[in-house]
Structure formats: C-alpha cells, structure tokens
Amino acid sequence: MGTLERFSTEEDERPRKFSKLSDDPEEEDAMQIDMGSLLASQDQGNDHPKHAPKKTGKVVRDPKWLVNEDVSTGVLLHLSRYEYGSIASLNRNFLSLIRSGELYRVRRKLGVVEHWVYFSCNILEWEVFDPINGHWMHLPRMPCNPYDCFVFSDKESLAVGTELLVFGRAIEACIVYEYSLLTNKWSHGIQMSVPRCLFASASHGEKAIVAGGSAEGKILSVAELYNSDTKTWEVLPNMNKARKMCSGVFMDGKFYAIGGMGEDGNRLTCGEEYDLDTKEWRVIPNMVPPRIQGPDGPEAPPLVAVVNNVLYAADYAQMVMRKYVKERNNWVYVGGLPEGASSVNGWGYAFRACGDRIVVIGGERTMGGESMVEINSWIPAQGAPQWNLLARRCIGGNFVYNCAVMGC
Questions:
Q1: Are residues 153 and 251 in the same domain?
Q2: E-strand stretches of 84-217
Q3: Within 13 Å and on the Cβ side, how many CA atoms surround 319?
Q4: Among 288, 316, 348, which residue terminates a domain?
Q5: What SUPFAM superfamilies does the annotation carry (predicted)?
Q6: 131: which strand partners?
Q7: 307 and 254, same structural domain?
Q8: Pair (229, 352) in one structural domain
Q9: What angle do CA 307, 309, 311 make, to 5 degrees?
Q10: What's the CA gap between 189 and 161, in Å, rounded?
C-alpha cells in the first residue's frame, strides 16, 4: 500500500454541531460583524491588514471591519464548502445565501470547484469524504424501506450540481431519491421519461446524461439529459446500439457510453460518443479495455474514469490500470492498482475521477473480522502511478454498492 497521506482525526469522528441562530438582533449583528472581519482577513490571504482585530475567539464588535455583502460573497466563494455549515449558522443572511444555491452557481462559473466522494457500503447509508482536507461526513439515512426499494433491481447513483440522485425500483415502479447539499435532506427526485436501471451516466456541472439501461426486461438505447438547476429531463436521440450495464464519462466536452451488454446478451466492445452540439451519436469500435478472459459470473460495468480529458480503466482481475490513446483508439498499460481491496467480478470496487486525481475505494476484512474500507489516490499529473492512502475506516461494510463524485 502507498504512503499514508492523512487519516481522519478524532474531531472528524464527531458530528459537527452548529450554533443556534440567535433571536437577539444585537447579537446577530455582532456575529455578522465577526464574520465580516473574518472574511476581510481571509480576503487578504497571508498578508493580514495592519490593524485587523486579533483572533481572540470573541465576537468582534468593531463596525469598521464589517465588509459589504458583495465582498463577503466574494470571499465565501473561495472558502471550502466544508465550512459553509458553520458559516450558515452565523446569521440568516448567510444561511439564505448558501441554501439558495446561488453561491455554488457562481463558483461553477468561476471554476471554483471542490470534488467530494459519496459512497455507500450499506443500502440506506452514505459516507462522504473530502480528499483534499481529509474530512469525513455521514449523510442522513435515506427515508425508505430497503426491502421496498432496492431488492428488486440494482441501485444506481449519480451526482450532479448540488444533488445526489439514487435510482432504484420499488415493488410496482422505479423510484428516485434526491439528496440536496443545500438542505442536507433527502426527498423524492424527478423521474426520468423512461425509468430504468443498469444505465450509463455521467455529469458535467449542473447537467448529466444517462444512456441505455434495462426496463421491464428490455435493453434500451434511450438517452436523456438532466438539468439540476431546472430539475427537468430532456429526451435525447437514441444511441446506435442498445446496451445495459455500461459506463458513462464526459471527455473533451462529449459524453461517452462504454461497453455493456447488447440486445443479444453478448458483451459489447464498442463505445458511443454523443456530441452535445450536433446532437449525434458516433460508434467507436474497440473502446472497451482488453482483458485476458471473462469472469465466471456477471461482470460489473467497465471501471473507467476521466482526469484532464484522459480516460483510464481499471482491470480488477489483473489489478492493473490502462490509459486510452484517442489518436490510435487503443489502450496502454500505466501501472498497478492499490493492493488489498477485493471485488466480485468488479462489483464492490469503486474507481472514480475526483478532480485532478483518481480515487480507488475498496474494502477488506481484517484479521479481527472488522470490515475496513480504504481510499487510495493517484494524481496523474505527478507522474507514474504511486498510490497514496488517504483514509482507512470501519463503516460497517466493505462492499461499495454505489459511488459518485460531486464537484461544486
């Protein structure tokens, strides 16, 4: 295993508690002044104002350090979104600003994006990990009965904008649950025009595309685009080939559906490229990474990830990673994968792009019988693969059912 880059601290183990909003106008104004002085200091980087108030931990009541709303918003844009919960508790103006989603929309336009990993090792439970700062969070439990929702079909997940969408099937119909980063709550999401499972999906900013999948025993070629700002689905032209159990990525501004199973039940080795400008699909032969032999049982969709517009794939059987060469339409060996994590024909193993890095999440059972999950990371821009262990944690399971990366 690579070097241990950072473990979660004891503080990370405790749920964060936010202070109650004050009903005292004077106290609330004082808190706003305190935030203004903090933001003014943050805005100066390492060069603090000569006469800035000292950090005493007390409320600063000097009105001359109260910055205006535009400056406050400008500084908030560049703070870690991990701090937004604490900031929202300072006063109602900041709470309203953060919950409106406007802050994230402006961040997106300015290219200020943080990528966090959301993954589930228990059917209704989700963990969140910030790979830059090493913070852990635990989402509220999904408000549904697992035996009504996720035992009749596979559970799919997709992070887009400030939403985490989880797709499943209840007894009579497909369902969608939506987690909102803005409210920290789950609710029923907007259903696709053609509800399905086992589809390819990927997001880019506030938009996401789903393609293919299976519905009522039929393998589909249907594709749809979701806009998280408007919460609407738009039906796109059908793919050239119907496919399920495929993977999706965005690369060079285009969407790709890779691999999967075709209508005849055979494994597809091609991919398809969707151009959002021309609204056309193009088949790309041999886009699926090679393998020595197939598994004995059902195989997971291709484990693929795109970093800096370069496509990478994980071979779970040989525990190696390959890179796709667009100009030659072939795959080349890059290096090995982190040791220790196990999978079942690729299931239970997460291989995801997370900003400028690739993260691998996998589990193993310790000698003491505990289920341990490890998160490893590699930044391609830094050279040949050298995996860094970002975190190791017992979370009650070591099989990764779902994983998505939210960038906002």
A1: yes
A2: 115-122, 125-130, 135-138, 156-160, 163-169, 174-180, 185-188, 200-204, 207-211, 214-215
A3: 10
A4: 288
A5: Kelch motif
A6: none
A7: no
A8: no
A9: 70
A10: 14
Q: Please check whether residues 81 and 156 belong to one and the same domain.
A: no
The least confident of 159-168, 189-198, 366-375 is 366-375
Instruction: Give the position of tokens 């000097």.
Output: 62
Question: For 204, left (φ over 0), alpha (ψ -120 to 50), or beta?
Answer: beta
Q: Which pair of tokens denotes residue 183?
A: 């409210």
- Cα–Cα separations (whole angstroms), residue 141 to 17, 146, 187, 241, 404: 18, 11, 11, 37, 17
pLDDT average, residue stretch 94-118: 90
Same domain, 318 and 232: no
Read off the pLDDT of residues 53-93 as tens digits, 9 standing for 90 and up: 333 333 333 333 333 456 667 778 888 988 888 888 888 88
Q: 282 and 152, same structural domain?
A: yes
Tokens of 80: 């870690």
Q: What average pLDDT is seen over the chain?
A: 82
**Please, what is the angle between helix 102-110 and helix 92-100, to 10°?**
60
* Same structural domain, 178 and 274: yes
- Give the up-direction half-sphere exposure of residue 276: CA atoms within 13 A in the CB hemisphere: 16
Structural domain span for residue 274: 143-288
Listed residue (390, 399, 388) closest to 350, CA to CA: 399
What confidence score (pLDDT) does residue 147 get?
Answer: 67
pLDDT at 345 over 50: yes
Do the domain assignments include residue 95?
yes
Q: Which of 169, 176, 245, 257 is nearest to 214 (CA)?
A: 245
Whole-structure pTM value: 0.82
